[in-house]
Amino acid sequence: MTPTETAKGLAERYEAFQAMKLKLDMTRGKPANEQLDLAQGLFEAVTSHDFKAKDGTDTRNYGGLEGLPEARALFAEIFGVKPSEVLIGGASSLTLMFDTLLRAHVFGVPGGTGPWSAAPVKWLCPAPGYDRHFAITQHLGYELITVPMTGAGPDMDVVERLVAEDASIKGIWIVPKYSNPTGESVSADSVRRLAAMKTAAPDFRIIWDDAYSVHHLGDAHDEVPNLLDACQSAGTPNRVLIFGSTSKISHAGAGLAAMAANEANIAWTKVHASKQTIGPDKVNQLRHVRYFKDLAGIHAHMAKHAAILKPKFDAVLRVLEEELGAGIASWTRPNGGYFVSLDTPPGHAKNVVRLAAEAGVKLTEAGATFPYGKDPSDRNIRLAPSCPSLLEIETATRVVATCVKLSIAQH
Ligand code: PLP
């Protein structure tokens, strides 16, 4: 609350929003329809006369477990690895991550001593983080350990200490660039430390979810050094498993998902994947490669996404500044990704999300960005501005900011 705003005035403003009978949704980071329209050309990229890959492979038939060579080459460019270090999966990176951890749980991983399920497992969860990551490791029965985020990735002092002393810690979730929800990127120093750190578990894995690697909002681009290179130099080549997809490049849930890792991990993945499937959808792979061509094509396409998304992020940041700029709350100003992360004073996030819902603005549940859905300070709120229209975003953010001030005024 600024000096000129009274609790009564805020309550009246809130009631005025309620009277508008709004129905706004800032819950999930979904692309807007106009973003999906950008890739309509995909539907024409493979025709009934032209469905063969460069090497003559008939994409309509079974086979090609690791993906078409041209699709592997495209993701190799995106991830900065060799094509032989890439495996193209189905259409969802989350599925690939789930399958990978399930395989580790049941069968163990290269360099390990057996199935992870043989003993209790703990997992590092940098938070605020992605709720669906935490849900996977919780679902497997792993104990989730919160690691603070620093603004440049997870707190490496905490990570190094924990992994060195406890062999039951088998891995960590990391979104290296434009993290969900804080938008921060892992620093070069942290990449080096992640590759070099001593882990008590010989089969420790970093799940490097590069979901937003090309998802810049403007001219300022975050750069994150290649962790697979760093691990190979540090003598820990098995440590990292990289994931990504075109869900927020082409069509969400109908794009391509890929994994990258050293050849031992890729070979291990193929052993298990070959029991699960005869091969992925290569028609979709061909469609994507023909449409985007190469990394330059992807970057040109992502600039069109940015032109749609940037004004929405700018609107969120402008309204937050206008309403809460006087030190009432803090928030992130990301160079890319899909979220703005808002921190209220401690103890208000749940109440703000409830107040906003009662004024017709749906937000991601408070706590969702922490393991077990519990934010120990009850302060973090994830704002997802991609899907609603610009006008809706402005109104929704105004409602949220009013709710923050009202909650503070009421308590
Ligand atoms: N990883 C992160 C960090 C995400 O934010 C999301 C979606 O919001 C996903 C993965 C989902 O990816 P996919 O659609 O490839 O399963």
Would you mind describing this structure in some detail?
This protein has 411 residues and is an alpha/beta fold. The chain has 2 domains: 7-30 and 299-410, Aspartate Aminotransferase, domain 1 (Alpha-Beta Complex), CATH 3.90.1150.10; 53-294, 3-Layer(aba) Sandwich (Aspartate Aminotransferase, domain 2), CATH 3.40.640.10. 41% of the residues lie in helices and 13% in strands. The protein is built from 14 helices and 12 strands. It has helices spanning 7-19, 33-37, 42-45, 69-79, 93-107, 131-139, 156-165, 188-196, 227-234, 263-276, 282-292, 295-324, 349-358, 390-410, and strands at 24-26, 86-88, 122-127, 143-148, 169-174, 205-209, 240-245, 257-260, 330-331, 340-343, 361-363, 380-383. A 7-stranded mixed β-sheet has the order 2-8-7-6-5-3-4, with helices on both faces. Strand 6 (205-209), helix 9 and strand 7 form a beta-alpha-beta unit. Helix 1 runs antiparallel to helix 14. The radius of gyration is 22 Å and the shape is globular. The protein starts with 6 loop residues before the first helix and ends with a helix. It binds pyridoxal-5'-phosphate. The site of pyridoxal-5'-phosphate has 14 residues, from helix 5. The site of pyridoxal-5'-phosphate (PLP) has 14 residues, from helix 5.
